Amino acid sequence: MPQLREIPLKPKPSSTPAIMTLQPSTALPTPPATPSMPAPRHPYPKAPSQELVFRNLIRGPALTLQISSEEFILPIALLCHHSTFLRKEIRQMIEMGMGPGKKRPLEEPDEVKVEKKKKKRKPESEEEGGAKIEDEKKRKLESTSEKEEEGGHVNPNSNSNPNPKPVLDKSSGPLILSLPPTFVSPDIFSLFLSYIYKSGYSPSVDALPASYTANTSNNHVATTTVSTTLSTTDFIPPSIHAYLLAHRLIGPSFMNHTLARIYAGIGVYYPLSPTLMNFVWVQTKGLALGSGVVPLRRLLLHVLIAHWPSQQFHIIARNDPAAWTMLFEAHQDLRQEFIMGLQGGVKVQAAQGYFVGLGEMVKVEG
After folding, report:
1. Do 193 and 69 have their domain in common?
2. Containing domain of residue 91, as a range?
3. Residue 129 within any structural domain of the chain
4. HSE value, Cβ hemisphere, 13 Å, CA-based, for 218
5. How far, rounded to the nearest angstrom, does the alpha carbon of residue 279 sit from its chain's CA centroid?
6. Whether 227 and 300 share a structural domain
7. How far apart are alpha carbons 41 and 236 in whole angstroms?
8. Are residues 191 and 325 in the same domain?
9. What domain of life does the UniProt record list for this protein's source (predicted)?
């Protein structure tokens, strides 16, 4: 019987790769080369956050604003940031050498100014007048020298500092600036404070008070009496007064905020009435911008033209035609623009279309 030869069996293919075993004499495998990576880009410097900007604005010396019987102690940097008018007033106070604790009224009565001019024009004699002028110059020079030695102010004529900046003494208390009642009332000024501290005030401030009646006079702000035969008992929204305050303060950002509140409040909290229109036209008579048009006037005129043909009394109070006739007779410029606008082409823009920039704000005396 023939002898059978054993046939070796082939190993079955494995689904997993064979594990590499290292011999004691073999070296570790060299890892693959790491591809060259470009250096990481440095991010662009971030703009300071609003929190950081606000924190910087509320630091430093303070100013006491006196309005009627109330006082507001506010950071100077914050006021200067939101009001070009206050920035100029504060700078002038510092340059005049009015140190902390000294009070400066915003303006003097005309009678006082006239008396001061008379005294300056009528010295008792030329020699005496010249002596007074020389004494005044010496006193100012001595006062300036003392302040330089104390480190409170820098001599403007000094060659070491050709462009001196105002310096405040932070240790002696705040400066004091008094605003007359005709400039603003505490209630309206509180809207400005809400804006500079909270970035805005509630729209509901323009809502008609529940206790308001047709015969209640408007006590939101003390203003000069306007001679007009129109009714003065209608409600004037606080945002209208806040807009006028923004004009006086030369604060475009606050003005735009008040304008947005007025834009949203017409037809919601109050309608356009002859008294409201008359109040705005009278109070903005001496105001103008670079474009020559007061944005508040333009907004109210556009709303009046766009909604006049309709019977939407919540937007335009047309229940007293005689009052509207008296309004147009009192303001011929309003009447002319109103008639031209009714012929077509006038539309109410978005609120941003009535906003202004700092370069446009120019106060025209008149």
Report:
1. no
2. 52-113+165-180
3. no
4. 23
5. 23
6. yes
7. 57
8. yes
9. Eukaryota
Q: Structurally, how many domains does the chain consist of? A: 2
pTM, entire model = 0.64
Reading the block at residue 71, the tokens are 């006082």
Q: Residue 276 and residue 263: Cα distance in Å, rounded?
A: 14
